[in-house]
Specification:
The chain has helices at residues 51-64, 86-98, 139-149, 156-171, 193-197, 236-255; strands at 9-13, 22-29, 72-78, 101-108, 126-130, 176-180, 202-207, 220-222, 225-227, 261-266, 274-279, 288-295, 303-307, 311-314, 321-328, 341-343. The protein has 344 residues and is of the alpha/beta class. The strands form 4 sheets. It has a 7-stranded mixed β-sheet, sandwiched between helices. It has a 4-stranded mixed β-sheet with strand order 14-11-10-16, with no helix packed on it. Strand 10 (261-266) and strand 11 form a beta hairpin. The longest helix is centred in the C-terminal third of the chain and has 20 residues, at 236-255. The chain is globular and about 70 Å long. The chain starts with 8 loop residues before the first strand and ends with a strand. The relative contact order is 0.16. It is found in: Secreted.
């Protein structure tokens, strides 16, 4: 209800490979709110929503700034999330207009409390990752191809979410990354959404059980219940683990070669085997490639097959499995997977 100047706080860790134009982003949001979203005078501590996400961004920046990575990493705390994703919307539009090569965004929002209101669940061993299925960007243009290939569950953001689960659970102890197959919580939104709408791979990381007594609440005590988003309700060990999931993923993504190019599956003949072929990535040195495969009903990749070649024939039918190909660095860092297109 009054003119306000907003700003996103950004730090950029430039990639060491000048030929590598990939960008990976970790985000949280600076602003917080109380019960009335238009109340701009009341105290709104925002410890969890979204001090937790901003703390994760800052900690990843602190640690990663001491190292070099081939790809560029942007650490950002956006403004105006509670007023309609204003800061993230501005940044996503700017990135689209300027042609930024954003390969993945990890949005962290409400990730530091271990308990739920109403159901009274206490659990600091799981974190949710939300990802869209059918792409919001240019869906009408791509819908026929998606249906033809059966890729309703294999958009760029969904692939990023699977990657976050695999890498997060590999490197962070005592945490399970739970894939939630929707862009965000039911009828709700977050700062990854403008990036998804602009065609970028973007996911949301959020605690497993939200406590609505400590979210979007005026500071008060009613009937013995303390309301408000206060630091006393945080689980900092849980936040540490969730930050580690982000750190492991950012480091692996930025250290990995870029994804293989022109990945194809041969379809010129009817066969019960599957022949895949591809070209080397545009940047980065590769030790080899992983072939990922899963049954069509499986939510995650079930098998990884390593090869140093740029083609492979597998004794599995493309009718019954999904396949993808990853580049692998000499240190074992994997790129994001690429689903093959039809080739002849």
């Amino acid at each position: 209800d009054a003119p306000t100047i907003l700003g996103n706080v950004m730090a950029t860790l430039k990639g060491s490979d000048l030929a590598d134009k990939r960008i990976f982003i970790i985000s949280g949001h600076l602003d917080s709110r109380v019960t009335d979203v238009m109340n701009r005078t009341a105290d709104a501590p925002g410890a969890n929503d979204d001090g937790s996400g901003v703390a994760a961004v800052m900690e990843c920046a602190r640690i990663m700034s001491k190292r070099t990575f081939p790809a560029t990493i942007i650490f950002v705390a956006v403004s105006g999330e509670e007023q309609g994703l204003l800061g993230s919307g501005y940044l996503a539009d700017k990135a689209k207009k300027e042609g930024w090569n954003i390969e993945g965004l990890l949005n962290n929002d409400i990730m530091g409390s271990n308990n739920s209101s109403e159901t009274k669940i206490i659990d600091n061993t799981r974190i949710r990752v939300f990802s869209e299925g059918m792409p919001a960007y240019e869906l009408e243009k791509n819908a026929a191809a998606i249906r033809s290939y059966g890729l309703e569950n294999d958009g760029k953001s969904r692939q990023l979410a699977r990657y976050v689960k695999e890498i997060g659970e590999r490197y962070a102890d005592n945490i399970e990354v739970v894939l939630i197959y929707r862009n965000d919580r039911f009828l709700r939104g977050g700062d990854h959404t403008p990036f998804v709408q602009n065609g970028f791979a973007a996911v949301r990381l959020t605690e497993m059980n939200e406590n609505f007594e400590h979210q979007h609440q005026d500071l008060r005590t009613e009937k013995g219940v303390r309301y408000g988003d206060l630091a006393e309700f945080m689980d900092f060990e849980y936040l540490r683990k969730n930050t580690a999931v982000n750190l492991a993923n950012l480091a692996n993504l930025a250290k990995a070669p870029s994804a293989p190019q022109e990945v194809k599956v041969d379809v010129k003949d009817l066969t019960n085997s599957t022949y895949l072929y591809w070209k080397a990535p545009a940047t980065g040195r590769v030790k080899g490639y992983y072939i990922l495969m899963r049954e069509t009903a499986s939510p995650t990749w079930q098998k990884k097959i390593f090869t140093t070649n740029s083609s492979i024939r597998l004794p599995y039918s493309k009718d019954n499995y999904f396949f993808a190909v990853q580049s692998v660095s000499n240190d074992g860092n994997e790129s994001l997977p690429v689903i093959p297109a039809a080739g002849k």
